[in-house]
Each structure stands twice: as C-alpha cells, then as structure tokens.
C-alpha cells in the first residue's frame, strides 16, 4: 500500500477523469491528513473513499491510512466511513463498536474482528452472506478433502484451495465461503480469516 499511495500522491494529476480524478481525491485527503486538519479530512474523506471504491482499493487504502485517521476527532458526518476504514485497517480488533455505531452490521463486524469470542450484539443477521461468515467462525470442520490434506501436512495446497473457495463465496456461493474460512482457521490463519471476513462483510455484502 505504501508504494501504491506514494504513486497516487507523487505528482499533480495531468488530466481529469478516471485514474486522474482518483489521484486528485487521494492527494487532497492525504494532504489534509498529513496536516492533521480534521475539518479538511472530513471534507476530503468521502471523495477519496468513493474513488477507492471505484478502483476496488478500499482495503489497501485502509491499511495505509487507518492508523493516522484514527487519531483525529472527526464529525458524525463521516463516522461511518471512518469506522469502515478502521475495520479494514491493521488495528481492526481495537475498533470500538457498540449498538448504534454508524456502520452497517456493526454487531457482526465487532464479533468477526474478535473471532466471535462473543456473539454479535443487536438483531441476528439474516442475509445469507452474513450467516455464512458466522458459520465460518463456528466449530465447523473444513471439508473432508481439505481435512485430509491438513493431516498429510499439505498446507500450501490447503491455503490455495481455501482461497479459491473464498473467491467462490464472494461470488455468491455461501457454502464455499464458510468452508474456505473454516479451512484457513484450521491451519492457524485466524487473523487472515478475520480480515477476509471483514472485507466480505463491509465490501461485498448487500447493504
């Protein structure tokens, strides 16, 4: 992410439209954040976030900027975006979420960030994708074929297969999503599974 956003902020956009508009939005946000100007950040953040959504770079943006963004006292108008950035950032486990938080599926997000140490607060989720995420952090064992690979210490293959299953899941196959997450957790990749689950919840699930 550092190299990517270094490129975005390295020079003045040479034109308008597409990547140039994205670069301008990120540069405006980056300048405000470096100056620790909360008002300017609040004004620039929505455009930068929209630009990253268009480029499917929200997770990379969050990894690069979430820590610095969390130091600012931002107004309620951008609270939802700031929480999403924080949950997609490196310190996702420490994000304070409570009932009424300005982010979709706050209870499930809080629970996934902590590996379902506690059940989600608020109404139980009903969307198939959300239920699949919950199931992936239950005591469910990986599919038999992957469990056999784990016993045979074929961990690289397991991780590859789990990644493919999760990709299927992000395309709508909720059973594959659950199996992929369960497989990652079974080989000790709990943190990776949590990050992926938060990305699916925040970026892929319908509002």
Structure, described:
By secondary structure, this protein is mainly alpha-helical. The protein has 2 domains: 1-95, no CATH class; 122-207, no CATH class. Helix content is 64%, strand content 0%. The protein has helices spanning 2-9, 19-34, 38-55, 58-69, 79-88, 106-113, 128-136, 144-151, 155-170, 174-186, 190-204. Helix 7 (128-136) runs parallel beside helix 10 (174-186). It is globular and about 55 Å long.
Relevant terms:
207 residues, mainly alpha, 2 domains
Concise account of the structure shown:
This protein is an all-alpha fold. The longest helix has 18 residues.
Strand content: under 5%
Q: Low-confidence runs (pLDDT<50, min 5 residues)?
A: none
Number of helices: 11
Give the mean pLDDT. 89
Shape: globular
Question: What is the strand and helix layout of this fold?
Answer:
Layout: H1 2-9, H2 19-34, H3 38-55, H4 58-69, H5 79-88, H6 106-113, H7 128-136, H8 144-151, H9 155-170, H10 174-186, H11 190-204
Helix pairs in contact: 2-3, 4-5, 6-11, 7-10, 9-10, 10-11
